[in-house]
Amino acid sequence: MARSNPNHFRTDFCLVLANQVLEDEATKGNTNSNIVVSPLSLHVILSLVAAASKGHTLEQLLFFLGSTSVSDLSLLTSHMFNLTSLDDHEESEVLSAGDHLLLSFVYGAWIDRRFNLKPSFERLVKDHYKAEIRNDIDFLNEPLEAVDEINSWAEKATKGLVTKLLPYDSVNCDTALVLANALYFKAKWEKKFDASRTQARNFHLLNGQIVQAPFMTTDSFLGRYHLYKCFDGFKVLQIPYQSGQDPPKFSMYFFLPDAKDGLLNLIQKLKSNPDLLYKKFELTEDKLTDFWIPKFKFSFGFKASDTMRKMGLEKIFNPGELTEMLNIPDIANRKLFVASIFHKSYIEVNEVGTEAAASTAVLFELQRARRYPSFVADHPFLFMIREERHGIVFFVGAVLNPLLDS
């Protein structure tokens, strides 16, 4: 698909969000955590929220997502479906046949049985997003079962790589709707690594410690020429994946700081300049005298809504303008809002290639109806006797057991 405008497929806000998460984790100096985030998964789910928004909420979403309209945002989704045009059955056949590339991007919607989608939004999620819709969920009486179902869907859609996307306490009696997507990617290197040459080597942690990790290198008979270039403070290496007969073409880029403790500076550079990840690096095929890449495999999850609030995207979390999604009976004028957004990703890099997956879920709640307060002193409490004119406290005490009389 030719791009009429390259900005249609940019995910700047979600790239900055991902870099904010990278910065937060790197600043902690936690040597027991790796980070992987899918800006694409986050961007597309926010685009779907935008399609159901009005007023200032829509304006803020469009501003943060760098678009002028909902239709502009939908172009990225259309592009994704062009890349993932196979249905689930065909995808499984491709995977079992050992093809070079497998890419899938699917959506799901879970609606509480008390409500239903507005017809226009239902058409959007069915026809444009090809979402699997469940409208018989009982968030009110069976919240744990609902979480299990959504987590099972995400796990299946990511070939078992993303598990426990939602924590059990993420839904409650006010949950009305959950929207989610799941992204899966598997590709082989254009030139595979020689597994017989993989060996343990030193890896320097940010805290100065050194650990032994398995490192891969290419077969000496294939040469040591790689797409590579030095920049100010860091180096870039590109490793292409096999593309088969009909590309898309994919590559993995490694950004290596010159300093062993230079990761945080590099993250801050990327955060302040997202264009750096879009640029053509004009790498040259160079012969490297020493070439080693560590194998790795890990998952990372976080509550994306917390980071979005920190970055100033806040109106979707306020009731009032997410009006185009659900038909809601007049229940004390309750309005819909985004309660939380969870994101989890997985990646494995080895001698053969890369397998990666991500899933994002948005949980929508109805604002709570006014609840009249109660005061039942059925547990230990403090008391005070005070003269009100002058504010003199005559007595203060505590009742631990009202049956005691001495």
From TrEMBL:
Residues 19-402 form the Serpin domain. It holds the Pfam family Serpin. InterPro entries: Serpin_CS, Serpin_dom, Serpin_fam, Serpin_sf, Serpin_sf_1, Serpin_sf_2. Transmembrane segments: none annotated. SMART domains: SERPIN. CDD domains: serpinP_plants. One of its GO terms (cellular component) is extracellular space. Signal peptide: none annotated. GO terms for molecular function: serine-type endopeptidase inhibitor activity. Belongs to the serpin family. This is Serpin domain-containing protein. The lineage of its organism: Eukaryota, Viridiplantae, Streptophyta, Embryophyta, Tracheophyta.
